[in-house]
């Protein structure tokens, strides 16, 4: 711990522009996020192999770029849908028990929790949360729950970044940056998309077109390191291969193709609205169920299994229909490479049902991400739309698979309000940069059309609205202003001698508009102050009018200000003690009264300065 303190003192003494402070911290976060991604990936496979595969005989199809540590094993037992139902329900139960008894903050999708910590918790994430999130999410995904991997791995990186900043006693601003860098590192590693990870960390904090600019460079560095560490665990032939392989080479053959892509964008926007509404509607339903929260993920998992079995029998025991469970990347891989082999009804049904299974899995309190399912839903909607448009305009729409790729980007861009990072993300995980034009069009249109729905509800509209930046954009119009700029030393003030009786004071009040009265001693030095309210307390007891003196009713412990005092401080004092006037005393001798500073004239001066700044701003804009 002593070494951590020394390192913290060293790092906080560095200047961002002239030192390697963020290089050191970002590398550290990247290493941990990369290792966390490896552990998380292996843990999912271990759970899946020993539950779904060993008991139910079902192994979820993977993408071309994924690596299985069990891929060389012989044929497994026959698939049993009812054992699958038992496995997924048990997974939801164990996950719920772990989460709600150890770290309730780990329920749901982890990215939203990281966003909330950034804005509202000074970047603080409890160290136990990422650990619990990793275990619970591995159980959820490994047993067949419909969720993504990005939420847990993002929270691993974010939690470590927050913990390191806390141990090193860095500022709240630095802790927020490290948290966001951890999010970027986790995303960059698990999706093998380092650039997208960095941009995602900066963009996902806000629902409007705004970026957390301070985050981009640290997040880029941590994302590169995490990506490199994670890829080192893969076989040589997969280390530089995109997640969906390097065989996707779709192109745009005509600018007129933007017309069907525009139609696709409208359909994707409607689908994104349906997804978000269903997700949070399901979440509210489960919160209303009067049972212990730890059992709700088991109910959601059971219903997810029932839906999956229904899909299996609806499509004549086609295992592709079971992609409504777990990550579902298998059907997405086929949709992007050979769309003609998948029927349009299956694609559309998987897209719609995936909305419900994801809502049941995560909305019930299960642990997992929402980006992965979003890609499957968007990809299936896009490919199905491409197939339909190809039937209508065969000369214009020649590559329906390309619509699946664009659908992945547009759908998530609309639901999550992250158009820029999503464009890069989809390009990186598919290795296809030839569709940037339609991808940009679709992502932008979906972003605009989906302004009223928010997949990540902890987002703030912009930096201006975030509590993390409260005060960054306020102009201090009183900066440099002093008490001497406001109060009038020539104003006549009625002073009360300490020996003056209450009877004399009451009669003298009748002829003045003054509300606060300084009390002075024989040498004219101020020793206290009283207000009309202090006198009013004695008005109904005439017996003490001749006995009580000014020094008996005055407040001897009073707040005073000096001519050089900052007006910001003075305004705070007015508010704190709720008075309308403060005595102004000499800068060197607090016994010498110079005058009284009124609250109204201070506020008037503030308004004058505010109007002056406003006029100056208008003139500079003109």
Low-confidence stretches: 10-18
Portion in beta strands? under 5%
Report the biggest beta sheet as strand number plus sense, adding barrel if it closes: 3 strands, mixed
Q: Spell the H/E element sequence.
A: HHHHHHHHHHHHHHHHHEHEEHHHEEH
Question: Looking at the structure, what is the overall shape?
Answer: elongated
Please report the total strand number as a whole number: 5
Strand order of the largest sheet: 1-2-3
Number of alpha- plus pi-helical segments? 22
**C-alpha Rg, in Å?**
33 Å
**For the terminal residues, how far apart are their CA atoms?**
56 Å
Helix content: 55-70%
Mean pLDDT: 85
Please tell me about this protein's structure.
- Mean pLDDT is 85; it is low at 10-18.
- The protein has 22 helices and 5 strands.
- It has 622 residues and is mainly alpha-helical.
Quick structural gist:
With 622 residues, the chain is mainly alpha-helical. The chain is 57% helix and 4% strand. The strands form two sheets. The protein has a three-stranded mixed beta sheet. A two-stranded antiparallel sheet has the order 4-5.
How is the topology of this model organized?
Layout: H1 2-13, H2 21-56, H3 81-102, H4 110-120, H5 128-142, H6 150-167, H7 172-190, H8 194-203, H9 213-231, H10 258-288, H11 296-314, H12 329-337, H13 344-363, H14 371-392, H15 400-416, H16 419-430, H17 436-449, E1 496-497, H18 502-509, E2 516-520, E3 526-531, H19 532-536, H20 550-553, H21 567-577, E4 581-585, E5 593-598, H22 599-621
Parallel strand pairs: 1-2
Antiparallel strand pairs: 2-3, 4-5
Helix pairs in contact: 2-3, 2-5, 2-6, 2-7, 2-9, 3-5, 3-11, 4-6, 4-7, 5-6, 6-7, 7-8, 7-9, 8-9, 8-16, 10-13, 10-14, 10-15, 10-17, 11-13, 12-14, 12-15, 13-14, 14-15, 15-16, 15-17, 16-17
């Amino acid at each position: 711990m002593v070494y951590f303190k020394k390192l913290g003192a060293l790092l906080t003494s560095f200047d961002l522009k002239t030192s390697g402070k963020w290089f050191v911290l970002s590398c550290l976060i990247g290493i941990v996020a990369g290792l966390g991604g490896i552990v998380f990936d292996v843990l999912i496979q271990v759970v899946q192999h020993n539950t779904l595969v060993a008991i139910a005989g079902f192994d979820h199809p993977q993408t071309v770029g994924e690596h299985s540590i069990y891929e060389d094993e012989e044929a497994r037992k026959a698939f049993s849908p009812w054992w699958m139902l038992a496995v997924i329900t048990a997974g939801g139960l164990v996950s719920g028990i772990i989460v709600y008894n150890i770290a309730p903050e780990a329920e749901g999708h982890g990215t939203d929790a990281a966003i909330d910590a950034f804005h509202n918790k000074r970047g603080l994430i409890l160290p136990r949360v990422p650990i619990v999130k990793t275990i619970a999410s591995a159980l959820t995904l490994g047993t067949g729950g419909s969720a993504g991997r990005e939420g847990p791995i993002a929270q691993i990186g974010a939690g470590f970044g927050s913990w390191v900043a806390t141990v090193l006693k860095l500022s709240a601003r630095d802790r927020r940056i490290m948290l966001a860098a951890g999010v970027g590192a986790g995303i960059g590693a698990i999706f093998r998309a380092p650039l997208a990870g960095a941009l995602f960390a900066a963009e996902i904090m806000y629902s409007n077109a705004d970026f957390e600019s301070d985050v981009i460079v640290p997040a880029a560095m941590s994302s590169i390191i995490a990506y490199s560490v994670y890829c080192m665990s893969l076989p040589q032939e997969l280390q530089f291969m995109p997640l969906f392989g390097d065989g996707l080479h779709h192109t745009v053959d005509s600018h007129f193709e933007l017309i069907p892509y525009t139609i696709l964008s409208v359909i994707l926007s409607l689908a994104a609205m349906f997804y978000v509404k269903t997700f949070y509607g399901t979440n509210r339903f489960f919160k209303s169920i009067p049972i212990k929260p730890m059992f709700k993920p088991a109910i959601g998992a059971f219903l997810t299994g029932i839906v999956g079995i229904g899909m299996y029998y609806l499509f004549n025991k086609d295992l592709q229909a079971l992609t409504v469970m777990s990550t579902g990347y298998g059907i997405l891989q086929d949709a992007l490479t050979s769309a003609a082999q998948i029927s349009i009804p299956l694609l559309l049904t998987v897209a719609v049902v995936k909305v419900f299974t994801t809502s049941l899995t995560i909305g019930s309190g299960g642990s997992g991400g929402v980006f992965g399912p979003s890609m499957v839903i968007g990809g299936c909607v896009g490919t199905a739309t491409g197939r339909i448009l190809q039937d209508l305009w065969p000369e214009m729409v020649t590559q329906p698979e390309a619509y699946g790729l664009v659908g992945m980007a547009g759908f998530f861009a609309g639901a999550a309000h992250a158009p820029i990072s999503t464009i890069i993300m989809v390009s990186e995980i598919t290795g296809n940069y030839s569709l940037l034009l339609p991808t940009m069009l679709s992502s932008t249109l979906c972003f605009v059309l989906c302004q009223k729905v928010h997949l990540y509800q902890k987002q703030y509209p912009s930096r201006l609205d975030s509590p993390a930046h409260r005060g960054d954009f306020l102009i201090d119009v009183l900066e440099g202003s002093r008490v001497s700029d406001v109060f009038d030393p020539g104003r006549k003030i009625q002073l009360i001698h300490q020996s003056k009786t209450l009877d004399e004071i009451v009669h003298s009040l009748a002829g003045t508009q003054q509300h606060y009265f300084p009390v002075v001693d024989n040498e004219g030095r101020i020793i206290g102050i009283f207000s009309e309210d202090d006198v009013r307390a004695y008005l109904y007891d005439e017996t003490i009018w001749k006995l009580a003196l000014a020094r008996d009713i005055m407040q001897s412990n009073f707040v005073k200000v000096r001519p050089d005092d900052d007006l910001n401080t003075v305004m705070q004092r007015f508010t704190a003690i709720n008075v309308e006037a403060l005595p102004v005393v000499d800068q060197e001798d607090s016994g010498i009264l110079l005058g009284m500073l009124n609250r109204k004239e201070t506020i008037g001066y503030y308004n004058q300065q505010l109007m002056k700044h406003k006029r100056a701003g208008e003139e500079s804009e003109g």
